[in-house]
Design a protein that fits this description.
By secondary structure, this protein is an all-beta fold. Helix content is about 0%, strand content about 50%. The chain has no helices and 11 strands. The model has no long low-confidence stretch (mean pLDDT about 95).
């Protein structure tokens, strides 16, 4: 399975971005998909995830109320809508396919990773 994350860019604080994660194989449609991010000088951290059927989502505290994950199983894509962005959201954002159908909150719960897309939020 190959993942392609896109949609990153430069945005002013308070703005929005929509990231997309496209998977190359149908295998991922039966698995949870997660988003992680790595800010400069920090470890990669969990942002949010969605279950295989889209029925369950969960987010890190910093993302709740601002970020929304959705999936289009027909197109085999998962989107991360980010609103009210802050400079501290600046990071490389990664999508990943889970090892199972339920959400995992750690990197160990994911088996395939995209290459990442840069998000930069200016103040």
């Amino acid at each position: 399975v190959q993942l392609q994350a896109s949609g990153g860019g430069l945005v002013q604080a308070g703005g929005s971005l929509r990231l997309s994660c496209a998977a190359s194989a149908r295998t991922s449609s039966n698995n949870a998909v997660g988003w992680f991010r790595r800010a400069p000088g920090k470890e990669r951290e969990f942002v949010g995830a969605i279950s295989w059927n889209g029925g369950v989502t969960d987010y890190a505290n910093f993302a709740k109320g601002r970020f929304t994950i959705s999936r289009d199983r027909a197109k085999n894509t998962v989107n991360l809508q980010m609103d009210s962005l802050k400079p501290e959201d600046t990071a490389v954002y990664y999508c990943a396919v889970g090892r199972g159908s339920v959400i995992s909150y750690t990197e160990k719960g994911y088996q395939y990773w995209g290459q990442g897309t840069q998000v930069t939020v200016s103040s």
